[in-house]
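Task 17 of the worksheet. Students: predict the tertiary structure of the chain below and write it out as structure tokens. Keep your answer in the requested format; marks are given for formatting as well as content.
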Amino acid sequence: MIIRSARFLLTRLLFLAMGLPISRYRKEVEQLWSLSKEVRAESLGQLLARNRPLNSAGSAVGGLEDLRSSLSLSKKQFRNQSTQGREKHGKSGFGRHTAGTTGEPTQITLDRKELARMLAVRDYCFRHHGLKLGQREARLWGRPEVGIKSRLKNFVMNRRVFHPVGPEAKDEVANLLSWKPDYLYGYASLLLEAAQILDGMEMEFDPPKCVVCTAESILPAQKAYISRAFKAPVAEEYGSTEFDVIAFECTEGHRHLVNPWALVENTKDKGCIVTDVSRTSQSLVRYELGDYVHLESSNCTLLGSTEVIHQLEGRSINRFAYLSKDEKFHALEFARAVDRYQSLSGEVFEFTVYQYQYGRFELDTSLPPGKGSLDVSRFVSEYLCDVVGEPVNVVPAGEKTASESFTKKGYFIQAMGPDHEG
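Model answer:
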């Protein structure tokens, strides 16, 4: 217990050494949520007047009225805007990069204050569940990334990455439990996979304080199953690379909006639109997130706003690609492979992978790659072979109908039918 407490303190001291006063900003989060809706809106309007971010038309937004009259910002517009900004001002601050759940790569730049605010919102949510940011985290997030930068980041965050898929899955779950994490955090599909493996094991373990599901929608019955397997409550998080935590589930089961600087809108034609009034490194004004959410007011005041996400569309837990009936890997690896290809080639394009039969995957791109569709397909095949440990057949997609091509959410479409798992 003493060693665990000392490790937590070390992590928090490392945050401070990096110029990230998380506790101070967490108190600001708490203070903002304690204000009335009107007073909080006035405070956010003042912040907009001071920061004056640019909207999609390039006009400064100096208040909430300007914000309401601004057009939405697409991911493509944001990428172009960010590229121009880096060319003018150079690259600085903390970088975040993702291939995107919709197959659209996004580069995010944050200064210390912006990153500290993001982490403070996370710390605020965790404390509601008896956790603190910096406590021991077991992360189920695809395969562990290699390299000094990733190892250093995991050390600073006091976490280890586990991947409970493949022939070593049972050992991976056993190692996870032996490490005695304070909490589990990761993809809903991987947490469910780990829970199913654990359900067939006879192993005594110290339950974590909480299991946090993120990135994918999950059914209530699946959450209950994970909770029983790990003997811990399960909380659902909704967030994105651009904003980190947007909504978090309270102990009563409501997904509250929790970032006081993020204004969330639900629109019929553009889906979920988010504005970060505190951001100065990049302008995120009425940014189209790519998901569809249904917001409603509640009487629950346990966490953040009384406005909660009642329903979330666009993120699916069906994220496994099947080599055979018994062999599978997480579809996240497709995003990593294409992301690597784009980093090496300097190209940017959207993509979707379709699976219609075991062991065969069709890669569709929004634009023809410079070296052709066959080149990127071969690259992804070779990348996945190294990751999975056996050949993966990725081929250019055939002609898609208008309803298939780039109108569905997500970069992976599982189309083998309901009986593919046997």
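Marker's comment: The radius of gyration is 22 Å. Residues 86-90, 405-409 have pLDDT under 50 and may be disordered.
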